[in-house]
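Design a sequence for this backbone.
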């Protein structure tokens, strides 16, 4: 499958941004993340007029916000699927979100209620990965290793970008897994 990522890197110019992209992607691969991607290309199916833009570009924040909104939509979808699996359970969406770090009790609850344990586990893992900033095929937004190597956009990073937008680059890529 193909997935659309916006990769944020810190670089002096567009050529350096491309080098940082390759280093970031190699870093993801070297962390036993082979299931995340097997190849990628700049642009690809999501080719834009400009695939590598810096923080001064008018579309910079728009692209980041769109990617972050996809992450939120993905999280909501995982929670909704999980709730459907446990439809007869007394737990609410809020309970599931709060308890995502307590996998054992949730799996015991799944087994007790004879619920599809495999899919419950899958959605719980996806929720945990989204909330912890782990790389996934559908991460949508990724920061380079030189920044924080995550799928989160932290407030401190936003402030750093605003102080020196010319130092930050967003690279539009197509990954395949």
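Sequence:
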């Amino acid at each position: 499958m193909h997935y659309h990522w916006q990769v944020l890197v810190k670089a002096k110019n567009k050529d350096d941004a491309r080098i940082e992209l390759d280093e970031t992607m190699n870093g993801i691969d070297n962390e036993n993340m082979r299931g995340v991607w097997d190849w990628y290309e700049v642009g690809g199916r999501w080719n834009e007029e400009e695939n590598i833009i810096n923080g001064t570009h008018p579309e910079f924040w728009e692209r980041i916000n769109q990617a972050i909104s996809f992450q939120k939509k993905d999280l909501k979808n995982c929670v909704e699927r999980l709730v459907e699996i446990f439809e007869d359970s007394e737990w609410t969406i809020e309970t599931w979100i709060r308890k995502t770090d307590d996998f054992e009790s949730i799996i015991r609850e799944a087994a007790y209620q004879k619920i599809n344990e495999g899919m419950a586990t899958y959605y719980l893992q996806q929720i945990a990965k989204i909330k912890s900033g782990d790389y996934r095929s559908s991460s949508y937004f990724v920061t380079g290793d030189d920044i924080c190597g995550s799928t989160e956009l932290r407030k401190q990073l936003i402030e750093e970008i605003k102080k020196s937008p010319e130092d930050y680059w967003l690279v539009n890529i197509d990954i395949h897994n």
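Helices lie at 14-30, 60-85, 93-98, 103-112, 117-132, 155-163.
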